[in-house]
Amino acid sequence: MNAGDDTAVVVIGGGVVGAAVAHALARRAVEVTLLEAEDELALGPSGSNSGILHTGFDSPPGELETRLILRSAALREAVLAELGVPVLRCGAVLTPRGAEEVRTVAAVAEGARRNGVAVTLRENGALEVPGEAVTDPVAYTRALADAAQARGAEVRTSAAVVAIEGGGRPVVRTAAGGAVTCDVVVNCAGLRADSVAQLAGDDSFEVYPRKGEFFVFDPPRGEPLERIILPVPTKRTKGVLVFPTIDGKVVAGPTAHDQENKRDRSVRPGARAEVMEKAGTMLPALAGAEPIASYAGLRPAGRGVNYLIGRSAASPALINVAAIRSTGLSASLGIGEHVASLVSEHGVVLGSESPLPELAGRAPSSSVPWWRRAAERHPHAA
Q1: Are 225 and 244 in contact (CB under 8 A)?
Q2: Cα distance between residue 194 and residue 312, in whole Å
Q3: Domain residue ranges in the chain
Q4: Secondary structure (DSSP) of 142-203
Q5: Which of 20, 62, 299, 300 would be a feasible disulfide site paired with 336, CB 3.0-4.6 Å?
Q6: Across-strand partners of 258?
């Protein structure tokens, strides 16, 4: 990026949300520059999560998060087909244990119906959710960014933002000395979203890391896991789940460990016992199995706020997309569309949606599974 660059929108953050916002804008003929601090896309929460594409069946009806997940689900099939992103349409099941959990699952089923998500509540109290699916979250993120580039967007890695200067049109400066002038800045910086907002004079929110640790296994007894096994949720967390990956492995997790260090992605020594106590009950064949890998992701949780999406009161040309927690992958397409409408309200003209050029229609492939990439990038427990 050279000094003096000019664009309509700068998107800060190359995770799945930033990539989805860039994609939503570029496909509507908006000039976009995406800036990612790391040397690759999806190295943060987007590359170290479960890869599950949720339907929104268990999201609280009426909330912004829920509306964006449901909208994403409506958009998803067309986008997956256009981008060639791998997906395992396996469905999910929640099996209650005890009368209290039976009541909880029945309430979840009622919420799913209110959200318009197809579910089946069995006589034994188990809830089947056929629309739940699994993808490769790194391939998904990269495919969105590639599609945005094919429509004219610029995607820059190793471009950490160090200043946002106001006064007329904002000027965004990077650590490498580059600068780009724009009409609107969209802050999708994940764990750094609060720091990026502060560069523009906005200290209205705080983001902290909630660590989720995962353990990867070869399929027990060589038999593939046919569907996602979901726990009965609590108010604090969706809990430990067991799910298949695109490449045929089985993963158990995550934990939910709140911390202050935004760079510590190590797997805690006690995490395995914490996960396996619950996962072994859900899938008894995992009991005693040795993991082949482990990894941890840091979800950007907001202090007293969730899904903070809107124009900054302190800096009108800044749109914050912050505190997008574990459902960011599932909600990303809806978030992109929603942010595009906010950009339009600022005066940026959205054009007609353009088809994807032929040469960009397939998701990037990698010889390294996304879960192994996450495990190898950071220290993990033995």
Answers
A1: yes
A2: 12
A3: 5-377
A4: HHHHHHHHHTT-EEESS--EEEEE-SSS-EEEETTS-EEE-SEEEE--GGGHHHHHHHTT--
A5: 20
A6: 210
Q: What is the mean pLDDT of each run of 10 residues along the chain (382 residues)?
A: 78 98 97 97 95 96 96 95 93 94 95 97 96 97 95 97 92 96 98 98 97 96 93 76 97 96 95 95 94 97 97 96 95 98 97 77 73 82 41
Closest CA to 338 of 188, 208, 138, 215: 188
Q: For 153, list phi and psi in degrees, rounded to 5.
A: -70, 155
Both tokens assigned to 288: 């005693």
Distance CA 243, CA 45 (A): 18
Decide the pairing of beta strands 250-253 and 241-244: antiparallel
Alpha-carbon 305 to chain mean position: 17
5-377 belongs to which CATH class? alpha beta
pTM higher than the cut 0.85 = yes
Q: Tokens 């699994």 identify what position?
A: 134
